[in-house]
């Protein structure tokens, strides 16, 4: 199973992001979406799970959760916008999650902390500073997960 990971679109859904997400079985948006149109356009590709980011405001955004707990292929995935707002400490993570997906920093990363895979897909929206424009993928097979980052520009 291949899940597309996207974050920090801030209302800009690039054609490169749409092309890179083609063929995924699901999409996780880790917040700072920018508009409900972004979610609608992503839903054309695959089912979307999304959380509200600190810049998501308005009636459409009020309907989004601040965090989600998902299970995909036997893998427990926790999604939130800002990793600093994770409500459990590192010692509890391994008991509750296999993967944590968070955006906010616009810095793409895939890091293992103990047995937990921390994934930040970076920003797929407007380029900020000299940071790359990226999305991520979460590949799940046989109850385990791995992640990768893909540059869009």
Concise structural overview:
The chain contains 4 helices and 10 strands, in the order E-H-E-H-E-H-E-E-H-E-E-E-E-E.
List strands and helices in order, with pairings:
Layout: E1 2-6, H1 15-21, E2 26-29, H2 36-43, E3 48-50, H3 59-62, E4 67-72, E5 75-80, H4 90-96, E6 99-101, E7 109-113, E8 116-120, E9 134-141, E10 144-151
Parallel strand pairs: 1-2, 2-3, 5-6, 6-8
Antiparallel strand pairs: 1-9, 4-5, 7-8, 9-10
Description:
By secondary structure, the protein is an alpha/beta fold. It has one domain: 4-Layer Sandwich (Purple Acid Phosphatase, chain A, domain 2). Helix content is 17%, strand content 35%. It contains 4 helices and 10 strands. The protein has helices at residues 15-21, 36-43, 59-62, 90-96; strands spanning 2-6, 26-29, 48-50, 67-72, 75-80, 99-101, 109-113, 116-120, 134-141, 144-151. The strands form 2 sheets. A 5-stranded mixed beta sheet has the order 3-2-1-9-10, with helices on one face. Strand 5 (75-80), helix 4 and strand 6 form a beta-alpha-beta unit. The protein is globular and about 35 Å long.
């Amino acid at each position: 199973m291949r899940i597309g990971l996207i974050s920090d679109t801030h209302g800009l859904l690039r054609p490169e992001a749409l092309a890179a997400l083609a063929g995924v079985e699901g999409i996780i948006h880790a917040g700072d979406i920018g508009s409900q149109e972004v979610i609608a356009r992503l839903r054309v590709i695959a089912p979307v799970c999304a959380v509200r980011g600190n810049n998501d405001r308005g009636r459409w955004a009020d309907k989004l959760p601040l965090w989600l707990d998902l299970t995909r292929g036997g893998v427990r995935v926790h999604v939130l916008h800002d990793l600093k707002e994770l409500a459990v400490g590192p010692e509890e993570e391994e008991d509750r999650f296999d993967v944590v997906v968070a955006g906010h920093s616009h810095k793409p990363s895939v890091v293992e902390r103990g047995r937990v895979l921390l994934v930040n897909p970076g920003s797929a929206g407007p380029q900020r500073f000299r940071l790359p424009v990226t999305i991520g993928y979460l590949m799940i097979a046989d109850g385990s997960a791995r992640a990768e980052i893909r540059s869009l520009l």
